[in-house]
Structure formats: C-alpha cells, structure tokens
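To whoever is on call:

I kicked off a structure prediction for a single chain this morning and the downstream step that reads the tokens threw a length-mismatch warning. I double-checked the sequence; it's 161 residues and nothing unusual in it as far as I can see. Pasting both halves so you can look.
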Amino acid sequence: MQYIKHTFAPVYDKNSKILILGTIPSPKSRENGFYYSHPQNKFWKILAEIFFEKIPFTITEKKSLLLRRHIALWDVLQSCYIENADDSSIKEPIVNDISQILYKSNINVIFTTGKKSYSLYKKYCEPQIRKKAIYLPSTSPANCIYSYTQIKNAYLEILKY
C-alpha cells in the first residue's frame, strides 16, 4: 500500500459542460503524466469513437479533444493510500475541491468512471455540491464485467449533454 497524491491539473475551460471524474491516476498514468494512460485503457478510444474523432495519443491531442467537446476531466481524489491500481484497496481518501471547476465553467452534468469513483463522489462530494453524478463503467483493462461494446454504449449517454 502506498500513499498517492494527485499531481495532474484538471482539464477544463469556461465552456466545459460535462465533467468526467475518475478515482485517482493509476501507476501507468502517473508514469506518463496524464489521465487514462495505460495502453489497454479504453477511455480515449471510446471518446474518439462516440465523437467520430481520431484516437488522441499525445497529451496535447487528448486535451484538445476534451475541450473541443466541452468536457472537463479530473478525479474525485486528491490523495489516498492504494495498492497499485486497485480502487477497492483505497484507504484514507481526501477529495478534490470539485467546486472550483463548477464555478469557472458551465458544467451541467457530472459522470464518474467506475464504481469506486461513483461511491466516493456520492459520499464526499455530492453533499457539498448538491449535484448527482451519473455512473459510467470503468474503462480500465481490469474491468472484465463489461464488454467493450457495453462500455461504449454506456458512454453514449455523454452525447445527450
């Protein structure tokens, strides 16, 4: 178990309408310096597919895709103790101040990726923010419960906003 402090800034601008929250960056994401950086993570591929865009590979391309589509991206947690990338092992979670994004943008819907980010958001953030989140399945390669198509179909919900 190791202590992890979140080091990436949130991605958003004043035109962001959709906020997607993960839990905390995985070891591979921390190593590469950006969200959802594990090569088998489906996040970027799915976003590209649902928006009919090319799959982004660089951090600049990823940020550009998000901002073009009015998506803000961050994580629920500022820090915690965690075993590798196992969200179920999280201990002593400290949450990010999500209100800073809400005040500086146009967010009208919040999505969480995975069960742990959803439960942490519901427990720690929703009471202060008073805005419910919509659960999306995790795009992690460890998520074997859902097929790629099922995950992609769930992410189509984003297009409604």
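Update from on-call: the warning came from a stale cache, not from the record. Cleared it. Sanity check on the structure: The chain has one domain: 2-160.
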